[in-house]
Amino acid sequence: MKTSAQGFTGLHMLLATSAFFGVVIAVNVTMAFYASSSWSGLVVKNTYVASQEFNRKAAAMKAMAASGIEGNLSIKGHEIRYDIHDKSGSPAIVDDVVLNFKRPVGDHEDFLLTLKKAAAGRFEAEHDLAEGDWIVEAISRNNGVVVMHEARRIDTAELGQ
Hints:
35% strand, Immunoglobulin-like, 7 strands, transmembrane, alpha+beta, seven-stranded antiparallel sheet, FixH_proteobacterial
């Protein structure tokens, strides 16, 4: 009986190299797919400027939180309502409320909505809201001074739309 002992040949090297790079490419494609389909971080236009403003914004947010003013956003169908009250539960003194609706990724559906004052501490508007996740930034002002600034992430499926 004749046995052949060729050892490690060029064909073996080609197959090993092809298998290695095939695995690397498959992993990269899989990771790229998951990153592009599931990432929900916020993007700022200039990260340097955003980092410089962070401490100032953090101090302002702490002061607003200490004031005890709270807002409540409710969305039913195309009716959007924002109620704002102080520590005691009384309507807060606010002139105008602006809601900035942003998608977590991309900005092609983003819009700004100025609410109309319906009563003391109650602001309303009508607007159709597409399905999915939204980040809603609410800015409440009195005589041009920001009284409350908050952001919430909402999912229209959870709202029963």
